[in-house]
Amino acid sequence: MASTAVRRKWFGRVAPVLALAIVAAACGGGGDDSGGGGGGDAAGEEGTPTPGGKVTYGLEAETTDGWCLPEAQLAISGIMVARSIYDTLTRPTADGTYEPWLAESVEPNDDYTEWTITLPEGVTFHDGSDLTAEVVKNNLDAYRGQYPTRSPQLFVFTFQNIANTEAVDPQTVRVTMNEPWVSFDAYLYGSGRVGMMAQAQLDDTRTCAENLIGTGPFKLVNWTPNQSLTAEKNPDYWATDAEGNQLPYLDEIEFRPIVEVAQRLNALQSGEINAMHTSDADTIDEIRGLADSGEVTAVESDQFGEVSYIMLNESQPPFDNIKARQAFAYAADFDEVNTILNAGITTQATGPFAPGNVGNLDDTGFPTYDPERAEELVQEYETETGQPLSFTYTTTQAEATVAQAQLVKEQAEAVGMSVEIITVDQSTQIDSAISGDFEAIGWRNHPGGDPDEQYVWWKSASGNPVNFGRFNDPEIDRLLDEGRTTPDEAQREQIYEDLNRRFGEQVHNIWLWYTPWTVATSNDVHGILGEGPSSPDPFPGLAVGNSTTYMWVEQ
Amino acid sequence: MRMILRRVSHLLVVLFFVTLFAALMTSLLPGDPVDAIAGFASPEQKEALREQLGLDDPLYVQYGRWVGDFVTGDLGGYYSVTGERPVMDRVRDALPVSIQLMVEAQILTLLIAVPLGVFTAYRATSRFDRATNATAFGLLAIPNFALALVLAYYVGVQLGWLPVSGYVAPREDLLEHLRRMALPVIALAVGQIAAYMRLLRSDMIATLQEDFITMAKSKGISPSRVLWRHALRPSSLTVLTVAGLNVGTLISGAVVIEVIFSLPGMGTLLAEAVFARQYIALQSLIAIIAIGFVLINFLVDLLYSVLDPRIRHART
Predict the structure, then answer these.
(1) Are A497 and A359 in contact (CB under 8 A)?
(2) What is the pTM of this model?
């Protein structure tokens, strides 16, 4: 029996590497609701933090382009580093709202057309320079593409509602909007990406990506790409915990990119690293077992997570026709997907908003598996257009995504559609989305926070190059605009629930599952989720990593 | 001297075709490299980047420009909307790692394969010979990436003997370097050991039938001296040839092994450049690897003369 278990473990680790050794998966999988995993203590019951020690954190990828934040395109691994070196002006709370973090206060005027950011006195960057309104203004200008030395890409779209920034006095920045913007404080967090860089880094045209200078809990010591990034405790860090103890607790943190997920877990088990993250369903399943047997401690969450889905291109046949989209949705058997691809641990997505998010609904009206209805719709489509319902499905070459494509093809063809799988590398996949050269494509996006943060991805296609699905839906536009300008929380909730239902009804995408993330650590490492900013509970999301500020190791 | 000149001209021809082929292949990849490098950039930024990369020029112009830079030691840069980071900086760190991995794998291979090859030839058809051959067949059939993970799990996790990831330079801590390189080196070497051992064995068996060996034995020279001094040298030519050609296999194996064991070597850089569509970097990396391959085979050719006097005499 024992040998069978060992063999299964062995096979489980070797099999995924057939294609995984080089190609990183574009889409991940796996997970259930939220909260602490087994093994060690749950968050909040971990004992009294002890200062000192070191955490070596295994990341799923290297951030080869570095951390010149306005220009950087950071995924979760890059965000983990960014959150350790830099501070954002705001941060999320347990219920998904935002409160000041580096800023002392972030206040809107009555109609949300102007926001005033007040900065604390005495905060310095790692190079000893002061955090001033001028530096913060320059940072915000850099993000929105209005600072001469910086050339942001995506942030230009996300901050395009800013009309003007002004340093009113040494500690106050005023931001004026083109239109009212009730969730601007969420954008100041930007999924952990909108950190404040020192003026010296902002103006560094040569080594901005490598010469990281923030106000954050750790100071960069050394970065050797593909090997490690080491940062030491910032002794002058401005933040303390609820008891007034100096943060961060750790003396040092080292991030090691270990691309191969089985090796990341091996490294944790063998004690080479003492923390790691993953969204791989099989690995999460394995970590659950290790946590149950007390070998590791795990915190798992799909709260405020990303959604894995199939994006449909509505600018061309067949998915410009709602019957084709509905037929595809009715053909998708999530239970089979969950069992075969995700070790049975994921939660079916009904829309873009993961659990925890404003707008999340159990039932959005999104079609559930019904092969008979799918067949009817295929026939209706073919009668209406005179064309067979056939399409291409573009996916990356990773084993997991190819398996997903094969299952999608099998399910769609079982009801009369014809599917051709196109496998490409990840860069080509992104190219295809940008250029619109796809019909259906495997995708993952929309990590949680404020639902307005998704505005840029869904606003009508004309003039918006990042609405990759190219749908033009006036109702979605209306709801997005209303959500952006409506301050009343109850009304906003209603608006985003309506938006979610609209997605379900129009089937702009085929929603699959909410992506879970797990942070596994050795049993002496604590503080993964950190303390709650203003409430006893911490922000439960892990989709953009965890804060290292509150991590501590038993001494 | 003439041979060296001939070899250098071979090297240049090989390099020309390898890099030209690489340029052709990368140009045939679907999609726009500018979109891969700067997907969300504005049209102006993309145009500037396109101009900077010279992507609107015909392929032969792009290739000629790269050659011109490469021969002057400029390996080009990793491009982004915000500028260029020299490839040379990354190669300077990565090349020693890959060389160490391959050299250490070759040393381990030879240390095990040569004695085994000699001994199994000497005891051909014995039970030990048959068992060794069967094991060698088995080892040849195991892909190195699968072996890498099995080793990592059992040796690294279950037994806790060796680290499963990361790199330490020998100048920093030699012992730690060897510990960290042990599993990748073993994973890379195992298949080679089996191949070298079997080649050497069959050559040794043939050599041991030669008249000069019979003569040596009849003179009363000890069996070990006959094996190691008289038979091994002429039997090594095939192994040596394969060792040279195997550099290609080692390089391709190293790409996977480096990723699995998180070694920051050329394989990791190569994979990174492919997936990020960094064409200039990719071309330079391929050229460096090609130069290494051809140079090693050039050295192997020189070693033939050392190992077998007949070749030296024929050449003179």
Answers:
(1) yes
(2) 0.85
